[in-house]
Amino acid sequence: MPASSVVHAAFFAVGAIVGGGLATAVGASRNRQLNGPSASHSSGPVVDVKVEPTGETRVTPTGTSVTGGIAPITSLPAVLKYGNPGPISDQLVRTAYVAGYDRRLRHPAWTAEHLTLAKLGKSFLEPSPSASESGDRSNSTFKEDESIPAMFRARLKDYFRSGYDRGHMVPAADAKISQAAMDETFLLSNMAPQVGDGFNRHYWAYLEDWCRRLTGTFADVYVFTVPLYLPKQDPDGKWRVTHEVIGTPPNVAVPTHFAKVVLTSRPSSPATPTIPEISTGAFVLPNAVIKDETPLESFVVPVEAVERAAGLTLFSDDIKKGSKHICQTTKCEVLIRRFDDARKRPEMRRAISAPAK
Question: Fewer beta carbons below 10 Å: N end or C end of the chain?
Fold first, then answer.
């Protein structure tokens, strides 16, 4: 996909999910996008964002964790006495992340993670895990998640010769705290089908790397990854959502787009260390080849746009109204680290690598 097409796709995504068309995406100012009035929601946020007295921002999952069954309900209407059809949400609480698994699409509906220098093993104040304790992706293997009921489980054979990568929603490089934590990122309940060369192995990896590098500027970084299914306008003028399904029989849906939503926190000033400065930002990328030179800011969308498209409430209205845009408080620019040259020069293969996933 040419770079111009990708940028156009990014603007299209904003128009499609905001509901106001392309003019909304181009004409709205950055402050209005992030700090304007938010749409009303009937439910609370997927995660609860709270600021502790110490100034640290904490994100905790809300709701009841349900894995492999129906949440106990004390009183059901008589029509449901033989079974409650749902919706059933598998909330997966892992060592390095929390996720909501979509049984119908067979990939995460969302994932949430909390990154800090210490958790990434880069803190000068806390010792890093020893080589024997930290995670090594060469020791991890892709596995089916047996905590998901067999009927709704993504399977290894679904991805076999599908033409898509098993794309980590929570990167393995974010879970180096232990081998067990890293192994959990290789469960298929943390995967969604992604275009490989040019996306999962390149631009998407650059974006994941950018999220990790935010820990060098902010004390706390919260990253939310959301697969999306966005409509496009057909020649007859009607809008339709069309997506591929892989597997035999077809089981796993292929998202048309992926969103990264970030929330960062740091002391607002040395004089007020307990008063945090909160920044937020959302980026929607098409599940397609993206040229390295495409600016990251071309994928910026309002947080509310991702919430509306996904049917989620990621942050409270107070957080969205009171936060700055992430591109105002730090540089929204990915680092390009391709490994194409290593393929051409075997002697360089150990020296050049793609950003860790």
Answer: N
Domain of 296: which CATH number? 3.40.570.10
What is residue 98's three-state secondary structure? strand
Give the model's pLDDT for residue 127: 64
- The angle subtended at Cα 231 by Cα 226 and Cα 234, nearest 5°, is 155
Distances (CA, A) of 133 to 109, 136, 148, 176: 31, 9, 28, 9
Close Cβ partners of 42 (under 8 Å, ≥ 6 residues apart): none
Q: What is the spatial distance between Cα 102 and Cα 214, in angstroms, rounded to a whole number? A: 29
- 300 bridge partner residues: 283
Q: Quote the pLDDT of residue 224.
A: 98
**Structural domain count, the chain:** 1
Active site residue 168: yes
190 annotated as belonging to a binding site for a ligand: no
**Catalytic residue selected from 107, 114, 168, 202:** 168
347 is a domain residue: no
